[in-house]
Each structure stands twice: as C-alpha cells, then as structure tokens.
Amino acid sequence: MAFGPQPEIELAEGPGTWNKAFGSNVFTLENTASGTFDRYVLQIWDKTETELIAEVRQQANLAGRAHFDVARILQSQLRVHKGLELTLELADSDEETLEYYVKSGYNVQGGVSVIQNTYGPYYVTMGRKEYYEETWNTVPYISEYNAAVGGNHSITGPALALTDYTYEILKSKLTGGIPTEFNPAAYVGARVQKIRRNEDFTLSFINEADIDNGDKHLIAQIRVKSYNGNTLVDDITIDNTFSNGGGPYPNIICDPALFYQTHPYLIITTQGGPDALGLSSNITHYYVYWVPQSDTILGCLSLAPASEIYRFDIDEGECSDFDPIQVSWLNSFGFKDYFTFQKRNDQSISITRETYDQLPGSWQSSLYRISTYDRGSTVSSQSAEETWTLRTRYLEDYEYEFLKNLFLSPDVYIRQYGDGDWKPVVIKTANWTDRTYRKNKLYQYEITVTMANKINTQRGS
Q: Based on the domain organization, do 379 and 300 belong to the same domain?
C-alpha cells in the first residue's frame, strides 16, 4: 500500500481534435500533484476504448512534463483507400481516417501502469503537413453557421473540400446557370475545374457543420445540379445513407441526437464524374455541393448548402492525336486529386534478360542432326518494365503549383482514355522545378511513371 502524496498525471497539451498523421502529433503530460513515480505513461485506445493500440512511457524528470510524439503509431493504423476513384455514389473513410482516445497515468518501478485520465475522441487522417505545424487548422474545412432564434441559421463559413486544388473565380464572373442556393454573401466565388465527360472524379468533405451555439450537424445529402448554358438540366440528390455507401443515417430524418459523426463516417467522399453521376449528354457545366441535416436550417426538405461552390466545366480539350491519360494521386489531406495529361504521351518497355549458351543438335536422338531452329543463346529469364512519359497542355500558374502535389505523392494511379481500369504507377521523375508564366512564358508539365506491376513474360527453350 502506497503512503504519502500521489501523482496526478494530466494532459497539458495535445494536437487538437483533428490532425494529419504525417507530421508531429505531440501529447504533453504533466504531474499536477506532488507524488513521486518512475515513468509517465501515455496510452492510445481505439474509438470504443476496448482495444489498446499502444502504450508509451517516459522517465520522470525535474521539468515535471513529458512530450510524446505518437505520429508513427497513428500512421501504422492508416492505409490508402484503394479504388476511391471508382466510388459509385458515396464512400466512408474507413481506411484513411482513425478515431482514437488517449489515456494518461504513471508507472512505479517494478509495478503496473496506473491510468488516471481519458481524453478524446481525436481524429486523424492520412494527410501530411509541414514539419513546423503542430496542429491542423480545420476551420476552412468545417462549415460554420450563426444560430438564429425561431428562424433559420445563416451560413458564415462554407466548407472547403479536402483537395489541394484551390483556384477560385468570383461568383460575379461566372457565366451560365448558378444554383440559387448560393445567393448568400458567404459564397464569394466558385472553385472551377475543367473535366471530360468520361473522367472519374471524387470530392471528400469532413462530415460536420458547426453552429455557434454549440450544435453540430452532419452531411445529409450531396446535391448535383447541371446546366446547358442558363437552363437547368439535371438536379440530383444523393442521400448520405448506408445503402448509398455513406452514412451514418439509415434514412433522412431530423433527429438532433444523430448529429455527431463517428468512424468510419468522419469524412464522406462523393463521386463527381459526369458519366458516373448519370448527367445528361448536353450539359455545359455542373455543380457538386453538400447540405447538412438539420431541423432548423431551412427545414428538412429544403436545406441550405454547407460547402463551397464546386463547379465543373465540360471541356473535351483540343485534338492532339494522343489519347489523354487521367492521373489520380493521394493528396496532402490523404484523399484523391485528379488531372488529365492530354498532350503527347510516350510508352516504352525496358527488358532485362538473362541468357545462357546451349549446344545445338539432337543429342538424345538415334541420329545426330542440327536443325536451323535449334537455339544457341537461350533466354533463361527476363523482366519487362513499362514506362510512360506524360505531358500536359500549356498550364496556368495555379495548375502547375497544384501538380507539385502529384510529384510529392507516394500513391499514384493512371487511367488511359476509354479504359475503365485504374492502374498503379511509380513516379520516376526525380526533380520538380518551380515555373511561372512570368519566368517561363508558355510551359507544360512532364512526368515519367513506371507501371507498378511488371509485364509477364515467358521462359525460352
């Protein structure tokens, strides 16, 4: 039995509720009492607090604090979501996010860990951040509303999607039809991209909208509106339900008790490709955005948008006698970005062969003969590596900066024109150089990739 003052190990500082796994994730523990002990103990538990993921310890010290960077532990719990490009309607974030709790305590020499406090939940994604960033500022990525007594909430901060593409055109400069839902002053501009009809595309959003009175709401629906000039053509609603690939709602109802997300529904991804969405063939542009589930935001049947305006202009590009190749990659948030290389592309195959020399002749026959097809130098094994060199059209400055994230990505896929299959590749280009119109005038982006799986070949005889 222990006598005298006991330690009280508490969390002094943490990385914030949301963070990215590839960067520092530091928890600081302190002893707020006067008791002595041998080691600080920090435990990481799963979202149900039933499975211990890891326990780390640090020697007690005169400073009275201990810092634990658990980034590597968190990274080991995450993986890339394969096939996210082919999302049918919605997808949850089962693989690329983690919900966890931390517990603090102490350990005496030769004894077991004594756990005293629990903190969380915390959420982390497959994303990367700068070496000097301790936390991830999620304010731009979570919708914000002002509460209204007896009336509708008003949006003050529409949420950005989890993409590195940030190019914006002022709302007043947009041509063609614009959904009336974007009339509020909070919607200043639209994030505009060009897209071909047969391209795959996804957008990922944090499944949360915050009200300044403390309420939280989740994604209820993904909305898609397409136009031919000023004429509305398609108006599609994708409910955030299990049956559609998302969640956590079994149906769309106004129940404030459900307004809290949990893994694997921390982030919802929606398909955004024109063909995958089933959009009409005569459209010129379309919009993708999400709306929250709420009993007070314009009612349940007419919901105000919660995300920024994401607009896609249909553009098949100019003919270059080369089939375009679409590329997808893991972006800085841990989700997917896309771009199409529509100029010249070159395929090459590099073959490595091992050979041996054998004597020609019918050595095992009753008569010795040498046939013209008897082989001397024989291939015992060979491997074939397929490489592609891809080139873009001439780029704007913001597009080149965006493609820097492709160069940095460890997980890249390509899809050839008319091919439904995405195939993994490894980037072989070793250098990225900053280019701008001011310095370089017209410029293109060129990248060389090698297929991640080698071509199967046979053995010689």
A: no
The CA distance from 363 to 342, in Å, is 57
Which of 314, 331, 352 is the last residue in one of the domains?
314
CATH number for 52: 2.60.40.1930
**Inside any domain, residue 92:** no
One domain, residues 174 and 307: yes
CA angle in degrees (0–180, nearest 5) for 453-459-461: 170
Instruction: Please indicate, yes or no, if residue 1 is contained in any of the structural domains.
Output: no
What is the spatial distance between Cα 350 and Cα 335, in angstroms, rounded to a whole number? 32
Distance, CA of 149 to CA of 11 (rounded, Å): 37
Residues 370 and 391 in one domain: yes
Name the token pair of 269.
């991804």
Range of the domain at 384: 318-461
Q: How many CB atoms lie within 10 A of CB 343?
A: 20
pTM for the model stands at 0.90
Are 115 and 156 found together in one domain?
no
pLDDT in tens, the chain (461 residues): 455 578 999 999 999 999 999 999 999 999 999 888 899 999 999 999 999 999 999 999 888 899 999 999 999 999 999 999 999 999 999 999 999 999 999 998 878 899 999 999 999 999 999 999 999 999 999 999 887 665 567 888 999 999 999 999 999 999 999 998 888 889 999 999 999 999 999 999 999 888 887 778 888 889 999 999 999 999 999 988 889 999 876 454 555 555 567 899 999 999 999 999 999 999 999 999 998 865 444 444 445 788 998 999 998 877 667 888 999 999 999 999 999 998 888 888 988 888 888 888 888 888 888 888 888 888 888 888 999 899 988 888 888 889 999 999 999 999 988 777 899 999 998 788 777 767 667 778 889 999 998 888 877 77
Structure tokens at 353: 């062969």
Structure token pair of residue 86: 């082919």
Residue 343 and residue 345: Cα distance in Å, rounded? 6
- The count of domains in the chain is 3
In a domain, 240, yes or no: yes
